Amino acid sequence: MIYTDSELKKKIYKMIEDFESEVVEFKEATSNYSFNDIGKYFSALGNEANIRGLNEAWLIFGITNDKQIKGTNYRKDGNLQSLKKEITNGTNEKLTFYDIYCIEIKDKRIVAFQIPPAIPGIVTTWHGASYAREDESLVPLPMNKIDLIRSQVGRDWSKEIVSEATIDDLDPEAVAYARKMFIRREENRDGASDIIEKLSDIEVLNKAGLTFKGQITRTALLLLGKKESSF
Q1: How many CA atoms does the CB half-sphere of 42 hold within 13 Å?
Q2: In terms of CB atoms within 10 Å, which end of the chain has fewer, N or C?
């Protein structure tokens, strides 16, 4: 999910009030911050998000560890978005941020890095090493967590439900096309076309296996999702 400024502000306030420390890291980062440490947090937070079944993790600059909003000048005169390309040089699978946001909260500049979970079955590494969170510290990814992620091999990632997604995240034209193709597939069955025509879009998608009991799967988002929803 890609956030608007207002959506992200609400999310950050929510994270300040109540967050899982293993998938959210606040850093004051007044003016600068180690690029190598950003890479380590990318690995650690992505691995922790995977283990918890979450769709994202966050590294946030401009907010202290005790949740004081201070603001940051990190790359204020530089190109924040170039970090997306820079980070791929150190990660396996060429992973990078979903997005990097720069917003103002209480007149303070905040930079938020939206980190994807590790790919099912594959730990996220930074320069060949995998990391995890332990309380407020970065540590090497322990073997039990490595085993948890590696055990996901064989799980059908595409069929998993994206809990926050709804049919509004799907492109109406793509849904109409999918409906047309499903009707064509079933046209040899007597009366099938007439029955399908009476079904709602979500009912057709359920029968086509693109959604499950009205819930949006990753397959549905990838094949039919609006551009901003496919993330």
Answers
A1: 30
A2: C
Cα 19 to chain center, whole Å? 16
CATH architecture assigned to 5-153: 2-Layer Sandwich (3.30)
Whether this prediction's pTM lies above 0.85 is answered by no
Strand partners, 58: 24, 114
Q: pLDDT, tens digit, for every residue of 105-145? A: 999 999 999 999 999 889 999 999 999 998 778 999 999 99
Nearest one of 142, 63, 57 to 103, comparing CA atoms: 63
Distances (CA, A) of 177 to 23, 181, 200, 209, 217: 38, 6, 14, 15, 18
Task: Give the residue extent of every domain in the chain.
Answer: 5-153, 167-224
Evaluate whether 231 touches 99 at the Cβ level (below 8 Å): yes
Whether 103 contacts 54, CB under 8 Å: no
